[in-house]
Amino acid sequence: TYQIAAGNSPVSYNADGLPAGLTLNATTGVISGSVATAGTYLISVSANNAAGTGAVTTFTLTVAGATVVETRQLSNISTRAAVGTGGRVLISGFVITGTDPKPVLIRAVGPTLAGFGLTGLLADPVLELFRSDTSSLAVNDTWGSAGDTAAIAATAIRVGAFALPAGSPEAVISTTLAPGSYTAQVRGAAAGTGVGLVEVYDAGTGTENTK
Q1: Are 34 and 66 spatial neighbours (Cβ–Cβ below 8 Å)?
Q2: Is residue 47, in this structure, part of any structural domain at all?
Q3: I need a surface site. Which of 33, 60, 78, 181 has the fewest CB within 10 A?
């Protein structure tokens, strides 16, 4: 706000050149509001009393451009490695921050990696999701048994993941997790070994972050 200063008992005020967003209270002489468009504005103000109009005062109002704050968050993590047995399984840890639950798409990929020129692949990945206290939340062996395969495929497209062939032995867990720490572990069915890929995608659109 801006108060027009005047003496000699003014009874009304005038202002010319106010930018859009600012208004003058002609009785109190208070200019208030907010200017949406950056620029320099030449404003003339005056006050009136019973004797007439006083001197006109001109001043310049400069409005700086708005500061744009860009917020970025991690959308997915992925790790490719040789998957062994026992303590040599593939493990990927992630953290969900914020206060609200977050939808995630977690995938364990093996045979489909052949399409990218890789060999020695894990033939039948098994994916298991754990809380930070090591309690198991979910496990999947074949993504066709993970629930609504059409919805899973649509989510994969939306988050930018490559498609998994229908009926392939890759494993998928699509779920919603509360804020906290988690690990996704990949092992081979029947103690199988080979190169595997674990992926964790942020499937939500809120303000929480997946790290």
Answers
A1: no
A2: yes
A3: 60
